[in-house]
Automatic annotation (TrEMBL):
Any one Pfam family match given in the protein's UniProt record, by short name: Exo_endo_phos2
The Inositol polyphosphate-related phosphatase domain, residue ranges: 47-336
Protein name: Inositol polyphosphate-related phosphatase domain-containing protein
Upper taxonomic lineage: Eukaryota, Viridiplantae, Streptophyta, Embryophyta, Tracheophyta
Gene3D superfamilies listed in its UniProt record: Endonuclease/exonuclease/phosphatase
Species whose genome carries this gene: Brassica napus (Rape)
Entry similarity comment: Belongs to the inositol polyphosphate 5-phosphatase family.
InterPro entries hit by this protein: Endo/exonu/phosph_ase_sf, IP5, IPPc
Transmembrane segments annotated in the record for this chain: none
Amino acid sequence: MGNTNSLCGRKGFYNKETLLSSVGNNSSHDGIRTIEAVKSCSFSRKSDLCIRIITWNMNGKVSYEDLVQLVGKDRKFDLLVVGVQEAPKTNVAQLLQTASSPTHVFIYEMKCRLLGKAKLQSIQLLLFGPKNSQPLVKELKAESQSVGGCGGLIGRKKGAVAIRINYDDIKIVFISCHLSAHANKVDQRNEELRRISNSLISKDKRTHDLIVWLGDLNYRIQDVSNRPARSLIQNHLQSVLVRKDQLLQEAERGEIFKGYNEGTLGFKPTYKYNVGSSNYDTSHKVRVPAWTDRILYKIQDTKNIQTTLYSYDSIDQVNGSDHKPVKADLCLKWINS
């Protein structure tokens, strides 16, 4: 593997220039449309619903300092949605509520409250809103779907949890999932997504204005070895690897996430790090870095609702896991309001 400027895998060798040209300026895929995040946000109009969405594989550990960094204090929003995987057995919701109270501000400038929670062993989905938001909640339901993994004492099943909510007459379903690991399990992950979708979305005859998927989807970088991948990241050329992302490849094939949107993968791959640092894995496993942690969304009512993505990024200051969290700020607006 001596040449760090080449990308080598089962199908041969690729030089950096070849992959750069293959990325081009194409920002859309047959299954997923790539959205460039807008960097400024206005919260002045009452018709806005602004949501901060966070996903994080916690690796079985938690610290108060990490949770403060996780929630942040740089933006106002109506709803805070946090999906965690491999969560410890401590009360994550209570810790998050404590961490968020002195630091972030909801639009209504009220102390936050837990509106809903869904749990499947170590997979959790937490939905927070302003303390006075209960009159806006007209429906709230939690569900789960297991697709395998380790239960029992380990308590780390693979699967998904969902919260569906009618908030201020906007019908939303949030799905937090943890899919099967390893680069060669692409077909299995695709099948797990289909099974989860059939269970938590398709069988429900009700329409949703917005569907959001978040979680450790576990899709990896295809046919790229460790040294060239890390060399590209170190030189801030991780965008070259985007075309090798398994999730986008499967979407282009029409296997998953048809009609969904995702922000640009402008941040470094979020897995796998040495715990307690921002250095990639130096254990005996030496995993190839990958964008395992993702947030995707789909607007069903495109005639009446407009969405704007204001951020899509990793939270690199959080070091307590071998994954970096990912956050998105998404605002909805009634077009004819």
